[in-house]
Amino acid sequence: MNLADLAFVPFHVAPGVYIRVVAEPLPNVAHPNKYNALFFIAADKGPANEIVFITNPQQFIDTFGAPKLEYPWSAIYAYYWSHYANALCIRLLPYDAKESNLAIAFIVKSDATNTPITDANGRYIFTLAAGYLSASSFIVQYCYDSTQIGKELPLGDIMATSLTGPVAFDIIKFSGDGPYYNNMSLHFTPASQFGNVNLYVRYNDSTIYTLTNVSFEPNYDMIGISTQLSTERLSNILKYNFNELNYGAVLNGMLGISATSYVIEYMHRPDNLTPTSLTTATPSNSLTLSSLDIIYTVNNSILQLSGGTNGSLVTANGKFNYRVFAQLVKEAVYGISRLTGSSSAYLAEPIYALLDETYPFVKYVFDPTDYGRFAVNDIQTVQSALHDYVLSKWFVNTGALLIANVAPIYNPFNRTEIASKQFFNSYLVVAYGSEIDGLLYGYRQKWPQIAFVARDLVKLRAGNYSPLPFAGVLNATHSNAISLPRKYTIAERDQLVLYGINYAIHDADYGIYTDLDRTTVATATMLRWMYVVEDLIDVKYEVQKLLKQYLHQLETFDWDSVANQIKQVILKPRQQQGLITEYDVVIVKDETYINQNVLPVIIRVKYAREIERIAVTIYVQ
């Protein structure tokens, strides 16, 4: 990705007039939304507690880093899913996680006794320095004046009319959530264009990101109004804040203390061939400082970030805390946080983005738990929350199917064992109970079966665009959890279907297949078949999108015409694909619903592989 034109602070053309150069990043090409999947993950880098739209595996690595084996394996699932479909990833972090940070600020120079230094005319001397920014202070780490290094200065108030001691006015902050950023650094060098810099983002000794010809320019909102504080992400590597209020106040002489009460001292370089020289300027509306001045205050030093942690997600002895992660998933789904008044919550703020209209459609939600590392109570906490989430998506016609992990079942005909290990009975849950010895992301070990489902289901669904079930040869499936695998008879498979159990075969050529794609509904309903529920999720969402345009005219519209549109646009293509053989549509024009701006649509359909027709009522609001 080339963000060479990314610009932050101003080319000052005239008082109050700025030129803004905006980066145009190379876009990631999204896959069809039909196969959107949601993953809750843990990582050491990347945006925290928000949905990130991942469309390819390299983007996942660039954003969140390589999946770590000691973290929940949902990151590995998301990595494989992004090969063929969109992975909606939420990196969860608790309230006590810490940011790494690095800042550049104007500071008031002071002597060894911490008394502000003045020039021959009694004016305070402001200069540029780099260091670390906390909520209330700035610690100087780099400055051309070495006597300022190591000082901790309180943040200044631009409205103050006098200075009682040295202060700092922060203008730029680079930061990242988590320990990954402790090993990052920023390196500035002169750019080919005067007034600009080259910025290198490094991880340990490797340059992982480069910005060329960067200037420091204010950011603007959507309607062109200059904003006080804004954030840009450098390819999801780093967060960037620019405090334009402080920048303009100091540079243009708009502090509470008058412009004649202070001067700005900096290392100036008139062109790329001339050595730097110490320069003093009086702030005014026409004064500009090029970014070269900022560079030469630190003289090409590498500015190391520090302080980032994952908080209580990692214990004191360095082990991952799966119980805290389970609570974070629960709080993310239900909107629980310290901000909402729950003092015991781990999330600082609620994650409303889960139901946000930015990504309204979610086809699959993957369970991040496993029975080797999560406690049973924590697994049930996560799975119950995720089931409530997929149910809420189903009711509003925007998804969703939960791909869940259950404890390995060693005797599939022992109902007591099944009852103790599998507590789902929902057509919106596909539960897998096998463990499979295999190789994923360079690790060979026993994995939960859903790890291979995440890898292979997306390829067979999105990669091959197949509406057919995920099942392999019907009479060739067995459970990897049984010590002596054998083929099941039809009668035995029917019995397992009634129990609502999924089993799989691991075939070197064809991957992992579930027997008949069962969901966990232990009844004779058609909705026990995974591929049927998958398709109905699509049908509901397509009907919702089609009919929303008519909801403002429910009492007057030609609903026979609308019913025909549903048949022609949504159902007939499925018949042509061979997925269904019969269909019918009835729109219920009931005054009770119309008064609530709700339109019930009854769709009766027969899937080609099934014996019975099913009827589904879709409420479009």
How is the quaternary structure best described?
single chain
Structural class, please? alpha+beta
Largest sheet: 9 strands, mixed
Q: Give the % helix.
A: 10-25%
What is the CATH T-level topology of the largest domain? Answer: Rossmann fold
Task: Look at the structure and give the CATH class of the largest domain.
Answer: Alpha Beta
Rg calc: 30 Å
Question: What's the total helix number?
Answer: 12
Overall average residue pLDDT: 79
Query: How many domains in all?
Result: 3
Termini gap: 41 Å
| CATH architecture level-2 label of the largest domain | 3-Layer(aba) Sandwich
Describe the global form. elongated
Unreliable runs: 1-27, 219-231, 471-486, 504-516
The overall strand count is 28
How much of the sequence lies in strands comes to 25-35%
What does this protein look like?
There is one protein chain. With 621 residues, this protein is an alpha+beta fold. The protein folds into three domains: 33-93 and 313-527, Rossmann fold; 98-304, no CATH class; 550-620, no CATH class. The protein contains twelve helices and 28 strands. It has helices at 57-64, 74-81, 244-251, 291-298, 322-334, 376-395, 415-421, 449-463, 490-499, 530-547, 559-577, 591-594, and strands spanning 11-14, 17-19, 37-41, 51-54, 87-91, 99-108, 124-133, 137-142, 152-154, 168-177, 184-190, 197-203, 206-214, 229-233, 239-243, 262-268, 277-281, 302-304, 362-366, 399-405, 429-432, 435-440, 443-448, 504-507, 511-514, 580-587, 599-607, 614-620. Strands 6, 7, 8, 9, 10, 14, 15, 16 and 17 form a nine-stranded mixed sheet that branches. Helix 2 runs parallel beside helix 8 (449-463), helix 5 (322-334) runs parallel beside helix 6 (376-395) and helix 10 (530-547) runs antiparallel to helix 11 (559-577). The longest helix is centred in the middle third of the chain and has 20 residues, at 376-395. Mean pLDDT is 79; it is low at 1-27, 219-231, 471-486 and 504-516.
